[in-house]
Amino acid sequence: GCLAVVLRTGFESSQGKLMRTILFASERVTAHSSEAAAFIGVLMVFAVVAAWYVLHEGLQDDTRNRFKLYLHCIMIVTSVVPPELPMELSLAVTNSLAALVKVMVYCTEPFRIPLAGKVTHCCFDKTGTLTADNLELLGVVHCSSDAGEPATTVGDVASLTSEQALCMAACQELVLLDGRPCGDPMEVALLQGSGFFLASSDVVSPSLTAPSPSGLMAGGIIGGALGALPTAAAQPKNGSPMRIVRRFGFSSD
């Protein structure tokens, strides 16, 4: 058997949080959108123009009842601009939710249902075909100690300096699991882009150099007192393995 420690159960787990959102959602069923507001705005413009024209022509007639004239203008505005439009949109969303529930489909954000009417294509993807669950290193931004000097970007990973590659390879909390580095995805991408690989849990070695515990460099201590970098690290791919003697917690979340 295997001894395991359960960290989260019930609503504290990822699936539990999703179920709690579905069962106890407090989001109001509304359908307010920018297009609906724009539609009402256009109707309001036409209503105001029509009411102004009726009022202007009515005031020219001295025999016309002013109260009925003003009432007529108000009726024009209220007739052109439907006050029940937001309620009708909300009712449409509610009916859509009821139809989805009948086929065992639950919606946690009902206000997005009207946006589904714009969907013309639907693509279902499996991780590894169109998308991937790993990170790729595109470049490194070098920040100088001088505050007035702008930061420089190294887009080509192959042109990294020895210090940059060494920091990328050694500043991590990765562990070996079945021969593969496991840990924070950002740290995995940095290690792969540095030209080093994880020879053991505390040893990083250049990609073209076989790991040799006896060949560890005495000057390559990372995490303790920072001393002079070894000259062999100037060419990471031909250098010697480096041992990590101290680690600091990090998370990219």
Could you please describe the fold and organization of this structure?
The chain is of the alpha+beta class. The chain has two domains: 34-118, no CATH class; 140-243, no CATH class. Helix content is 34%, strand content 9%. It is built from six helices and seven strands; from the N terminus they run H-H-H-H-E-E-H-E-E-H-E-E-E. Helix 5 runs antiparallel to helix 6 (185-193). The two termini are 33 Å apart. It is a multi-pass membrane protein. It comes from Rhizochromulina marina. One of its GO terms (biological process) is intracellular calcium ion homeostasis.
Helix and strand arrangement:
Blueprint: H1 14-23, H2 34-59, H3 66-80, H4 85-102, E1 140-142, E2 152-154, H5 162-170, E3 175-177, E4 180-182, H6 185-193, E5 196-200, E6 203-206, E7 242-243
Antiparallel strand pairs: 1-2, 3-4, 5-6, 6-7
